[in-house]
Write a structure and sequence with these properties.
Shape of chain A: flat
Order of helices and strands of chain B: HEEHHHHHH
Strand content of chain A: under 5%
Structural class of chain A: mainly alpha
Shape of chain B: globular
Number of domains of chain B: 1
Structural class of chain B: mainly alpha
Largest interface: A-B, 76 and 59 residues
CATH topology of chain B: Arp2/3 complex 21 kDa subunit ARPC3
Strand order of the largest sheet of chain A: 1-2
CATH architecture of chain B: Orthogonal Bundle
Strand content of chain B: under 5%
CATH class of chain B: Mainly Alpha
Number of strands of chain B: 2
Distance between the termini of chain A: 47 Å
Distance between the termini of chain B: 5 Å
Largest sheet of chain B: 2 strands, antiparallel
Oligomer: heterodimer
Radius of gyration of chain B: 16 Å
Amino acid sequence: MRFTRDITLGQYYPAQSVIHSLDPRTKLISLMILMVYMVSAVDLWLYAGFSIVLILTVVLARLPFGLVFRNIRPFLWLFFLTFGFNAFQSSGKILFQVPVVGWSVTTGGIERALVFTIRIALLILWAAVFTLTTSPMDITDALARLLKPLKKLKFPVQEFSLMMTIAIRFVPLLLEEAERIQKAQMARGARFEGNLVQRVKSLIPLIVPLFVSAFRKADELALAMEARGYRIGKERTSFRVLRFQQADYVAFVLVLLMAVPVLKWV
Amino acid sequence: MVGALFVCLTAAGAHVRIPILPVPITLQTFFVLISGAILGPYYGGFSMAVYVGLGLMGLPVFAGASGLAVITGPTFGYLAAFPFAAFWIGLRLRWKSSDFGSFWKRFQVFWEGTLIIYLCGLVYLYAIRNLYWSDPPGVSTLILAGMAVFLPGDLVKIGLASWLLPRLASLNVLSAERRETDLGR
């Protein structure tokens, strides 16, 4: 079982930068727009331009490059497959042929392969920049605000953000609890090995105490919140209020300006 | 509150791994099935949506990598289906009745929930392959790669979940009246 310290921060990398201090709503909306650009663009030069923009953003956000690019690692196999797959597919000048099977690598194929690979890489990296510069609590706030119009459709926005907040707080606690229970049961002689049936059976002394503890925590929490006057459905005020600043408007304009080359080359 | 803690349970489940060849089983979907059954359609689906949301925010709650970049990966479809599966299970098992039916009834409903996860996962896998490689895979390859390998593990989990469900539900220490309030759930 893996247990990371400071789990509540997730991937967040705290730093003082323009990007960090943008309104989380700005970052979320910009990210969505950027993702649409990434998927709809087809020109290799355009992707080169987007890569430069990404690098500028990373520099502006004062993120270490290693930290950002580490996000690509779990997807490396996808890159190799994508590249290999596209390189053999299209027409163009034949560069060389694979002996035995007779597949040919063409210039057109290489260009296509590059476009597709960079597309995936940029999608992953933009998402990484967002989660690295925005803390989970900020994202929760932004989501709660952006989803607010849905309240008219009876979507329980307030409960949603409450649940998010509580879950962020309790995930590390319960992970720790699971680890503790596992160790406690092992000390009592439980074994987590053997054949299939034995292994599945060995899960029961883990699951049952975990449920007991989760239910108990929920009960205590509900009681504590009621005692402090929390009522579902009542309007509540928040400690931090989100407000768009000048930098947010600048960011929006910049992101929207990027649509011009995309539309030109579509 | 129970809903929020189910989010945490699912997160814990994703990290409990039983290494059985060829694909290791995690308890992640076990908790998806159970949450729908215990919390009912709305809160079950809701809590799983929160779970997926947390993972996308970058909290390490998924079995593999977490963070918004997961959306671009080929397996996001399975995760995206969790809320729907929990909702469906809640609808079939708990809608206007508080008993869970027989073992086989539970088995069948959990199986339907698992099918929803597969279906969504396969469609996403197909779409992603089309987008990245512009090569739509054949139906048989898709089912083999995206479903058949998970099937044995999932059947074990469905069996375990249908067997344990009434016992787990009876562990609920919340008083009857709190259990029915929004805060209790």
